[in-house]
Structures are given as C-alpha cells and as structure tokens.
C-alpha cells in the first residue's frame, strides 16, 4: 500500500475493479458480496443502470455552476424530499459532517433570531457519531475520536442513549436542542424503543427545544421506511441526510421545517460544491428508484426474511454471534469473539461487512438485494461460525 496516502485508515489489502449490483469484483475476477455498501452509501448497489445513465447524461451537459445561479435539478430534488418528509426546506452540501455543521449553525441562529442567544447548548447521546469535524467530535463526545484534538468545541452534553430521565435532568436554561441518531450506526446499531423517540419529541415540545435527527446512516430507506423517524410516528424539526442520498455520489442535506429554516437567509450559510448539477442528477436518480411504489415494500420483505435467518444463526451459534440488532437493512450482529476477527474471516470467504462499537459487525447490504443474495450472505456467516466451532473442538 502506498506511503503517499496519510495513514488514517487500517485498510484491508483489497482493491476492486468494478461492481455489479450487490457485488464488488477484483481485477482477478473474485466476487465479493458487498454488505458494507461503502458504509451505507451505495443503497442501490453498484453500477445501477438508472444511476449510471443519470450521471453520464449530466456529465456530458455541464458539471458545476455554483449556487450563484439556479440549479433546477436541485430544486426538484428538494421538492421531492419535502414532499416525502416533515420538512419544508432543504440545504444541500457534500457530506454528512457538513449537514451536521449546518444543522448546528441553524439551531444557534434560530434561537438568536428569537432573542434567546443564551440558548445554544445541544444535548446529544453517548455512543453517537456525527462526523469528524472539531464540532462533530465534540458533539459525540467519544474520547477515541477526541484524544489529541483539544481544546474541544464547547456546547454539547452527552446523556445515555435511550434514557429519557437522564436527558430531562440534563436540560438547562441554555439548552437549545436535542440531537440524536434514531438508530446509532457507528455506536453499534444501537436501536432504542420507539417510545424513546416519541419521548424525545415530547420533551422537546415541553421545553421548547428543537429536535434534530441525524439520519445520515439510518435514513434513505435503510430501515424500510424512507426515513427512520416515520417508524415512531413522530417528526423532528431538523434532519440531516447524506450517505444513501447520492447512491455513491457525495451529497449531504439539511432538512427543516419552515419555521426553523426561516433563520437562514442569504449569506448565513453556503457551500461551493454543495448541490451541484452532477450531485443533484444522482440524487434525483436515487429518488426515482426509491419512490417507486414497489421499492420500500420489497426492502421490508427481504429484511424480514434476512432478520429471521440471522435470528436463527444466533440461536445455532451463540458462541460466535451473540445478538442481532437493528431494523430493516440496518442490521448488526454482535460478536461473541472479536468483531475484527470475524470481519476478516467473512471477507476471506467473500462477504464484506463493517465493524461498529460494542463489538458489532454491521450488515448494510444495498437495498436492492434479493432473498437469494441475503441467503448467500447468511451462508457465509454460517460457514465462518462453523469454522470457529471446528477450531474449538
Ligand atoms: C457517516 C455518518 C456521519 C458523517 O458523515 P460523513 O459523510 O462521513 O461526514 C454523521 N452521522 C452519522 C450517523 C453517520 O453515520
């Protein structure tokens, strides 16, 4: 591996030549079933013909013109996101952490506009992940990501994920918002009771706080509904999207209600690349597929059957996999042995997965997988478990 790259990743020594739906294929022709999806990004798999066509068409027209001009494809994507969510307005950027940054700025500006500039603190949760900027690592409060980067950005207080009592006690006169992932991804596919999410809405209403959901990983169809908040029958005031939104093209988005969005006027926030025509062509192509009436029901069907197979796997191999977590196709298997070992063994047998906190292996297949592909993945998970069984005999 080249020393010309900064050493910020513990990369696997594996590179690919091309992709085909849920498969990544090496130069040697080895096929890997991709249940990593570039960390929940390639929601429609690789080389999806509709996405490829949309990108190629736009690439031949023009790529970029900046937000100094209208970008009709962006207006269209925003209107579609608005039509299918709680939100009234959208701001496009290039990544998750930029959506987080925009959300945090919007929260402060909203209370400043209300004449309450002293309300600027945000309550977040232990185990959270919101990105790698100085503000985002302070928000998540994870020592692993903060070490060496002091002084830390002020304004965030963490409470235990899933604990409403602790959260209520953390609220002060300076609290502006509660910012959480409805399901924690990096933290280990930690899935709270839907009652907790409803409770968050209630607490925000009671104390006049903004509810901000980070759906960067759990949004865009991953849980079986377009957005995870729909599962709880409530809505946030502000939401961040990224990962699956561009199907592999970098797009982030900040969504908010009219009342909150009104705090951003010309000059308050901006981006050079965000929402450019290439990105918006990809985002609209993703929406074309996801909004097809058969799409989400199929995600639900395949996720139910995958879940059943994984529950069965854990019952048969509790010495290797101790627990299934998650919702839809945002799934986690908790390892009874180190997840790094399991991930390497799965990769050696042709299944790509991603690690997460609490010794979890994330299973993030593209949302287009078939029952047969889900079964193939479970076959590999099973063969790794059996290899451990033989090793123990
Ligand atoms: C990946 C992720 C982010 C950060 O997104 P980037 O595009 O890497 O900046 C933020 N929040 C959640 C929940 C994520 O999964």
UniProtKB/TrEMBL annotation:
Its EC number is 2.6.1.11. InterPro entries: AcOrn/SuccOrn_fam (IPR004636), Aminotrans_3 (IPR005814), Aminotrans_3_PPA_site (IPR049704), Class-III_PLP-dep_AT (IPR050103), PyrdxlP-dep_Trfase (IPR015424), PyrdxlP-dep_Trfase_major (IPR015421), PyrdxlP-dep_Trfase_small (IPR015422). PROSITE patterns: AA_TRANSFER_CLASS_3. Its main location: cytoplasm. SUPFAM superfamilies: PLP-dependent transferases. Pathway: Amino-acid biosynthesis; L-arginine biosynthesis; N(2)-acetyl-L-ornithine from L-glutamate: step 4/4. It is found in: Cytoplasm. Pyridoxal 5'-phosphate binds at residues 129, 214-217, 272. Keywords: Amino-acid biosynthesis, Aminotransferase, Arginine biosynthesis, Cytoplasm, Pyridoxal phosphate, Transferase. It holds the Pfam family Aminotran_3. CDD domains: OAT_like (cd00610). Binds 1 pyridoxal phosphate per subunit. One of its GO terms (molecular function) is transaminase activity. N(2)-acetyl-L-ornithine binds at residues 132, 271. It is an enzyme of class 2 (transferase). It catalyses: N(2)-acetyl-L-ornithine + 2-oxoglutarate = N-acetyl-L-glutamate 5-semialdehyde + L-glutamate. The modification N6-(pyridoxal phosphate)lysine is found at residue 243. It comes from the Bacteria. NCBIfam families: argD (TIGR00707), PRK01278.1 (NF002325). Homodimer. May also have succinyldiaminopimelate aminotransferase activity, thus carrying out the corresponding step in lysine biosynthesis. Belongs to the class-III pyridoxal-phosphate-dependent aminotransferase family. ArgD subfamily. This is Acetylornithine aminotransferase. The gene is argD.
């Amino acid at each position: 591996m080249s020393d010309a790259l900064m050493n910020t990743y513990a990369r696997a020594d594996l590179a690919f030549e091309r992709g085909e739906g849920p498969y990544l294929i090496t130069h040697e022709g080895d096929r890997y079933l991709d249940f990593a999806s570039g960390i929940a990004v390639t929601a429609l798999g690789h080389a999806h013909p509709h996405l490829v066509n949309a990108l190629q068409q736009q690439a031949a027209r023009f790529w970029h013109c900046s937000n100094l001009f209208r970008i009709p494809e962006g207006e269209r994507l925003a209107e579609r996101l608005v039509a299918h969510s709680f939100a009234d307005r959208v701001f496009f950027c290039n990544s998750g952490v930029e959506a987080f940054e925009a959300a945090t700025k919007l929260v402060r500006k909203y209370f400043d506009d209300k004449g309450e500039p002293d309300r600027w603190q945000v309550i977040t949760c232990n185990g959270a992940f919101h990105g790698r900027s100085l503000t985002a690592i302070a928000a998540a409060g994870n020592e692993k990501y903060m070490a060496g980067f002091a002084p830390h950005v002020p304004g965030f207080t963490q409470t235990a994920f899933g604990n409403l009592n602790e959260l209520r006690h953390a609220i002060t006169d300076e609290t502006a918002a509660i910012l959480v992932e409805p399901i924690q991804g990096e933290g280990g596919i930690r899935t709270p009771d839907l009652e907790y999410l409803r409770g968050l809405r209630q607490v925000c209403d009671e104390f006049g706080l903004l509810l901000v959901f980070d759906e960067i990983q759990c949004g865009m169809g991953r849980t079986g509904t377009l957005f995870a908040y729909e599962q709880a029958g409530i809505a946030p005031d502000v939401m961040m999207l990224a990962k699956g939104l561009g199907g592999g093209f970098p797009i982030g988005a900040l969504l908010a209600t009219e009342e909150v969005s009104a705090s951003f006027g010309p000059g308050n926030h901006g981006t050079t690349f965000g929402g450019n025509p290439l990105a918006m062509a990809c985002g609209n192509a993703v929406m074309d597929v996801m909004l097809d009436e058969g799409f989400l029901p199929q995600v639900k069907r395949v996720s139910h059957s995958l879940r059943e197979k994984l529950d069965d796997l854990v019952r048969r191999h509790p010495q290797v996999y101790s627990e299934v977590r998650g919702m839809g196709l945002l799934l986690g298997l908790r390892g009874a042995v180190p997840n790094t070992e399991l991930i390497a063994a799965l990769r050696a047998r042709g299944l790509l997965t991603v690690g997460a906190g609490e010794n979890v292996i994330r299973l993030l297949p593209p949302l287009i997988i078939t029952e047969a592909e889900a079964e193939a993945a479970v076959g590999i998970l099973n063969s790794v478990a059996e290899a451990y069984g033989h090793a123990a005999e």
